[in-house]
């Protein structure tokens, strides 16, 4: 009987040993390979720059800017050592002394008041393990930590930790934390600021200085005390830092050029997917920061002036395109992106008389000259409904008889323009408009000559490049895109196609210059430089346009209401849209230099 009991005990012990050995084998076999840290890179924000180097925004899942460990100031590393793991530079990844000390304090306090996890263990947990509370996870955490310590230096480990840690308020990593909490680079942080950031990863919500300042300042001061005790800061630094106030509000990065940025984001997301939010791309946009600010101011001022005459809300949009490259230099899609994200640069609206230059360009192509005449008198054409006619009328019902083409376009004479379209063929006009880059559906009816077919501000403005240079240009939103190392992924070269010969271009510029000198856009003469363009107004003054250019920029402005109701009495293109255009075009030559 005794022999059987002894055999049973031995068998049970062997079973336990085997089970334990199997468990240990399973633990090691399921451990992630710490070699992967050699190629590890956390999610990083992609950054959008203006053409002159300003940061417009960041795209991210986790707001983070990766910082190499050797660029992190020594005092930042020491602050986190003091706050999280004072024996960091002495232990092999697992701190037995620290664990025993924490256990003693927990028993003495009757609750968990201090943990024993090292910085290396926290890094292992963040990178490799699920956030579950179990003995198995703690053992894996310890085993991984020892392996990490064998393979990497202490500075490499704390560098990875400082890039991976979450600091609250959507900030991941030390660089983003410095910007979020203090609006500055991590290299510019003061002692008190470093101590606050070092206090956060343990419990970002509990120590949030914006919501729980009383707790946050106590925690920060504990970190400062530890930094002083460890000799990381002097008595003078400690005294000064402990009296520093906490930050009052987070420094969120509010989009610059928001309508443009959102347009760019949609284009890049369609092309690059998740990479846009996690790979730390560098996007060099075409926006000129100063021109963008001027565009936003011009639109805001213009809407304010219209609201003095017309009931709110009136909206406006503006786009400025580089004539030589197609680069979009400024884009405003409405009065306030933060109230309405609807981008009117891409909305379909009737262009009114701003479409007329396509009619006159076809006439020149067909052999007409700016001084050839066309009859401006009441006229009727068969209507869409059988038995009914359509009679285009001039503004204020004034007619001028035989007029040269230059006068007909300058005064925006509807009757003369429709007659001209009828003679050259409206289908030819539609085909030419498409050739110039209009992609919206243009109906082959005579009313189209007066702008009855809906178009987008961006496409109509870009199409005017044909009148300015003879060349069709494609609007481009970014010049170059690189990875986080600066290696070019994509470059956007200008896409240019010659449409008109030089002699026709010269005649078109002559006609559009006449609009400014003696026609509906005479107010633009106040710019004191040669500019060209065309006003546009739809029935009942529901849409007001001005599209024009100088030798550098092609600029289109639209004004109207989102519900297509009239802006207000007499709010034509010359009164509602042209002043915004003029305001923007003032001093643009100096700003582009």
UniProtKB/TrEMBL annotation:
Catalytic activity field: Preferential cleavage: (Ac)2-L-Lys-D-Ala-|-D-Ala. Also transpeptidation of peptidyl-alanyl moieties that are N-acyl substituents of D-alanine; [GlcNAc-(1->4)-Mur2Ac(oyl-L-Ala-gamma-D-Glu-L-Lys-D-Ala-D-Ala)](n)-di-trans,octa-cis-undecaprenyl diphosphate + beta-D-GlcNAc-(1->4)-Mur2Ac(oyl-L-Ala-gamma-D-Glu-L-Lys-D-Ala-D-Ala)-di-trans,octa-cis-undecaprenyl diphosphate = [GlcNAc-(1->4)-Mur2Ac(oyl-L-Ala-gamma-D-Glu-L-Lys-D-Ala-D-Ala)](n+1)-di-trans,octa-cis-undecaprenyl diphosphate + di-trans,octa-cis-undecaprenyl diphosphate + H(+)
Compartments in which it is found: Cell membrane
Location of the Glycosyl transferase family domain: 53-227
Transmembrane segments: 5-28
Swiss-Prot/TrEMBL keywords: Carboxypeptidase, Cell membrane, Cell shape, Cell wall biogenesis/degradation, Glycosyltransferase, Hydrolase, Membrane, Multifunctional enzyme, Peptidoglycan synthesis, Protease, Transferase, Transmembrane, Transmembrane helix
Residue span, Penicillin-binding protein transpeptidase domain: 318-550
Main subcellular location: membrane
GO biological process, one term: proteolysis
Any one of the GO CC terms: outer membrane-bounded periplasmic space
UniProt xrefs under Gene3D superfamilies: Biosynthetic peptidoglycan transglycosylase-like, DD-peptidase/beta-lactamase superfamily
Pathway the protein acts in: Glycan biosynthesis; Cell wall biogenesis; peptidoglycan biosynthesis
GO molecular function per UniProt: penicillin binding; peptidoglycan glycosyltransferase activity; serine-type D-Ala-D-Ala carboxypeptidase activity
NCBIfam families: PBP_1a_fam (TIGR02074)
Assigned protein family: In the C-terminal section; belongs to the transpeptidase family. In the N-terminal section; belongs to the glycosyltransferase 51 family.
Protein name from the UniProt record: Penicillin-binding protein 1A
Native species: Thermodesulfovibrio aggregans
């Amino acid at each position: 009987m005794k022999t059987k009991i002894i055999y049973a005990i031995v068998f049970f012990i062997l079973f336990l040993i085997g089970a334990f050995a199997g468990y240990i084998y399973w633990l090691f076999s399921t451990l992630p390979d710490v070699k992967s840290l050699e190629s590890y890179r956390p999610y990083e924000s992609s950054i959008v720059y203006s053409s002159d180097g300003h940061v417009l925004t960041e795209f991210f899942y986790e707001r983070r800017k990766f910082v190499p460990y050797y660029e992190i100031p020594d005092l930042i590393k020491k602050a986190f050592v003091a706050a999280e793991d004072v024996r960091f530079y002495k232990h092999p990844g697992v701190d037995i002394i620290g664990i025993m000390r924490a256990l003693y304090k927990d028993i003495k306090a009757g609750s968990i008041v201090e943990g024993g996890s090292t910085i290396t263990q926290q890094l292992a947990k963040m990178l490799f393990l699920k956030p579950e509370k179990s003995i198995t996870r703690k053992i894996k955490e310890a085993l991984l930590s020892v392996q990490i310590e064998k393979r990497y230096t202490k500075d490499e480990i704390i560098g990875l930790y400082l890039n991976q840690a979450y600091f609250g308020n959507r900030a991941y990593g030390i660089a983003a934390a410095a910007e979020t909490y203090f609006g500055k680079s991590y290299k510019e942080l003061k002692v008190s600021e470093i101590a606050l950031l070092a206090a956060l990863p343990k419990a970002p919500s509990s120590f949030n200085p914006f919501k729980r300042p009383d707790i946050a300042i106590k925690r920060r001061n504990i970190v400062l005390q530890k930094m002083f005790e460890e000799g990381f800061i002097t008595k003078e630094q400690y005294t000064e830092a402990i009296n520093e106030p906490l930050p009052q509000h987070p420094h969120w990065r509010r989009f610059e050029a928001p309508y443009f940025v959102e347009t760019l984001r949609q284009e890049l997301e369609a092309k690059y997917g998740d990479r846009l939010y996690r790979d730390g791309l560098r996007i060099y946009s075409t926006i000129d920061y100063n021109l963008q600010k001027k565009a936003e101011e011009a639109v805001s001022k213009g809407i304010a002036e219209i609201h003095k005459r017309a009931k709110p809300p009136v909206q406006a949009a503006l786009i400025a395109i580089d004539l030589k490259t197609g680069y979009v230099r400024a884009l405003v899609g409405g009065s306030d992106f933060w109230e309405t994200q609807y981008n009117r640069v891409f909305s379909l609206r009737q262009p009114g008389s701003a479409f007329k230059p396509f009619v006159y360009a076809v006439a020149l192509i067909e052999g007409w000259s700016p001084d050839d005449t066309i009859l401006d008198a009441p006229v009727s054409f068969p209507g869409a409904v059988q038995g009914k006619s359509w009679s285009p009328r001039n503004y204020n019902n004034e007619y001028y008889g035989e007029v040269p083409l230059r006068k007909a376009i300058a005064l925006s004479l509807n009757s003369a323009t429709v007659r001209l379209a009828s003679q050259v063929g409206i289908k030819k006009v539609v085909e030419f408009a498409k050739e110039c880059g209009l992609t919206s559906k243009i109906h082959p009816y005579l009313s189209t000559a007066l702008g009855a077919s809906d178009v987008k501000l961006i496409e109509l403005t870009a199409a005017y490049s044909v009148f300015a240079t003879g060349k069709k240009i494609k609007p481009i939103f970014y010049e170059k895109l690189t990875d986080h190392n600066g290696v070019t992924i994509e470059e956007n070269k200008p896409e240019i196609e010659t449409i008109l010969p030089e002699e026709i271009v010269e005649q078109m510029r002559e006609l559009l210059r006449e609009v400014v000198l003696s026609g509906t856009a005479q107010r633009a003469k106040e710019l004191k430089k040669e500019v060209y363009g065309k006003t546009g107004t739809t029935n009942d003054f529901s849409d007001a346009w001005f599209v024009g250019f100088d030798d550098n920029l092609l600029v289109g402005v639209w004004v109207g209401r989102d519900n297509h109701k009239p802006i207000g009495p007499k709010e034509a293109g010359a009164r509602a849209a042209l002043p915004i255009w003029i305001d923007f075009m003032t001093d643009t030559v100096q700003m582009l230099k």
